[in-house]
């Protein structure tokens, strides 16, 4: 037989866990003004459902699900929302996390704010032009920066470098 106190504590704990979403910091796009601003309907028409969930609702893709994880050509990774160049392939590295990782963004490409989701303090990274959520940055990356920009691949699009004539 289940003890009444255990049952009540379990229900209260489950309710508390589910309400953590309300404790989440306001999305970057709601807190700032950006060069590219669109209505929810315009974003939904432009983006795939998965891109919308990540870029506009700060979702996260499943690890190892992005085709950009295995992208090794030279080129530029840009925002899937507004096509702003964000990362050079020169700064991409294999982090083993299941998400495309970079040690440095391009100059004036991304913005950052505190993300207190799930009781942790992390630095959320967003596109500086449209405010789209890209992922998070951590301090366990390689030299020269020591940073790991762990990006959602579906928030990015890849533009290969133009082939050079020999």
| Largest beta-sheet details | 6 strands, antiparallel
CATH homologous superfamily - what is it? Peptide methionine sulfoxide reductase
The radius of gyration over CA amounts to 19 Å
**Structural class label:** alpha+beta
H/I helix tally: 5
Question: Can you tell me the number of structural domains?
Answer: 1
Given the C-alpha coordinates, what overall shape results?
A: globular
Q: Which residues sit in consecutive blocks of at least 5 with pLDDT less than 50?
A: 14-29
The end-to-end distance, rounded to whole angstroms, is 78 Å
What sequence of helices (H) and strands (E) makes up the elements? HHHHHEEEEEEEEE
In which order are the strands of the major sheet placed? Answer: 3-4-8-7-6-5
User: What's the total number of strands?
Assistant: 9
Mean pLDDT: 85
Word description of this protein:
There is one protein chain. The chain has a single domain (26-160), classed as Metal Binding Protein, Guanine Nucleotide Exchange Factor, Chain A (Beta Complex), CATH 2.170.150. The protein is 22% helix and 24% strand. Strands 3-4-8-7-6-5 form a six-stranded antiparallel sheet, with no helix packed on it. It has a three-stranded antiparallel sheet with strand order 2-1-9, with no helix packed on it. The longest helix is centred in the N-terminal third of the chain and has 15 residues, at 4-18. The protein has five helices and nine strands. The chain is an alpha+beta fold. Mean pLDDT is 85; it is low at 14-29. It is globular, with a radius of gyration of 19 Å. The chain has helices at 4-18, 20-23, 28-31, 40-46, 49-55, and strands spanning 75-79, 85-88, 92-93, 101-102, 110-115, 122-127, 133-138, 148-151, 156-160.
């Amino acid at each position: 037989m289940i003890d009444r106190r255990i049952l009540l504590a379990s229900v209260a704990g489950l309710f508390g866990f589910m309400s953590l979403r309300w404790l989440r910091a306001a999305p970057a796009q709601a807190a700032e003004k950006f060069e590219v601003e669109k209505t929810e309907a315009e974003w939904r028409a432009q983006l795939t459902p998965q891109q919308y969930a990540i870029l506009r609702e700060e979702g996260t893709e499943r690890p190892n699900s992005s085709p950009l994880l295995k992208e090794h050509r030279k080129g530029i990774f840009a925002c899937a929302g507004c096509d702003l160049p964000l990362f050079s392939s020169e700064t991409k590295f294999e982090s083993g996390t299941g998400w495309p990782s970079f040690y440095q963004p391009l100059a004036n490409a991304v913005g950052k704010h505190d993300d207190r989701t799930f009781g942790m303090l992390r630095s959320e990274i967003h596109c500086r032009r449209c405010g789209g959520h890209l992922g998070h940055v951590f301090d366990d990356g390689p030299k020269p920066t020591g940073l790991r920009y762990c990006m959602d691949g579906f928030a990015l699009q890849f533009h290969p470098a133009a082939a050079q004539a020999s």
